[in-house]
Design goal:
InterPro entries: Acyl_CoA_acyltransferase (IPR016181), GNAT_dom (IPR000182), N-acetyltransferase (IPR051531)
Shape: globular
Pfam families: Acetyltransf_3
Oligomer: single chain
Strand order of the largest sheet: 1-2-3-4-5-6-8-7
GO molecular function: acyltransferase activity, transferring groups other than amino-acyl groups
Organism: Secundilactobacillus similis DSM 23365 = JCM 2765
Protein name: N-acetyltransferase domain-containing protein
Structural class: alpha+beta
CATH class of one domain: Alpha Beta
Helix content: 25-40%
Largest sheet: 8 strands, mixed
Bound molecules: coenzyme A
CATH superfamily of one domain: Gcn5-related N-acetyltransferase (GNAT)
Strand content: 35-45%
CATH topology of one domain: Aminopeptidase
Length: about 170
């Protein structure tokens, strides 16, 4: 399968149904899923995968698999999804890593690659990351990706009102 893009340490490729067990390492980890307020059920993991396979068909992008170049291990997901931010359609960079790969710079490496792919290949003028107000690790990735806070929105998810900050960065026009 050809990669979407690669970085110094990662190959970024589409998810497939064979990834369900490794997707579960993050999506069914209650600590990694703190911002979503619950660990996913088996059905929710399958729905997550199918939603991304649908995005590939309909949008041409979605969340992708992050594979370590050195050992071929699946370490998490990063990619681009269409989102609504206070009525505005935006392209979001999202990222979720398995916990044993946190604090090694993989998320920012993948997110910077996603930003370059959005700007250079898809010619998207601005990319966003929409982040729950208690998710400081994710905010740090957005800030390191050159983003600034543009506003706040409330997401209603899992029966909870969750304030989210909208971070974004615009493509430089030379
Ligand atoms: C959000 C998430 C991906 C961030 O992971 P992370 O490990 O904090 O971020 P990075 O992979 O970019 O690693 C950055 C850290 O690695 C360190 N680091 C080590 N080697 C590095 C390198 N070669 N390059 C860059 N940073 C490096 C940095 O100093 C930084 O340290 P810190 O954690 O003390 O700040 C992770 O917390 C996660 O998966 N959370 C659950 C899912 C989630 O909430 N996703 C976001 C939804 S909006």
């Amino acid at each position: 399968m050809s990669p979407i893009y690669s970085t110094e340490r990662l190959i970024v490729r589409p998810l497939t149904s064979a990834d369900i067990p490794v997707l579960s390492n993050t999506l069914q980890d209650p600590i990694a899923m703190a911002a979503y307020a619950h660990a996913f059920s088996d059905q929710e993991v399958t729905d997550w995968l199918n939603n991304n396979l649908r995005r590939y068909q309909e949008d041409g992008y979605g969340l992708w698999a992050l594979i370590c170049k050195t050992d071929g291990q699946f370490i998490g997901q990063c990619g681009l999804t269409n989102q609504n931010f206070n009525g505005q359609s935006v392209v979001e960079i999202g990222y979720l890593l398995q916990r044993d790969y946190w604090h090694q710079g993989y998320a920012i490496e993948a997110a910077q690659g996603a930003k370059q792919y959005a700007f250079d290949t898809l010619h998207v003028p601005e990319v966003w990351s929409i982040i729950r107000d208690n998710n400081f690790a994710s905010m740090n990735v957005a800030i390191r990706n050159g983003m600034l806070v543009r506003g706040v929105t409330i997401k209603h998810y899992y029966g909870i009102d969750m304030p989210h900050y909208g971070f974004s960065v615009k493509r430089e026009v030379i």
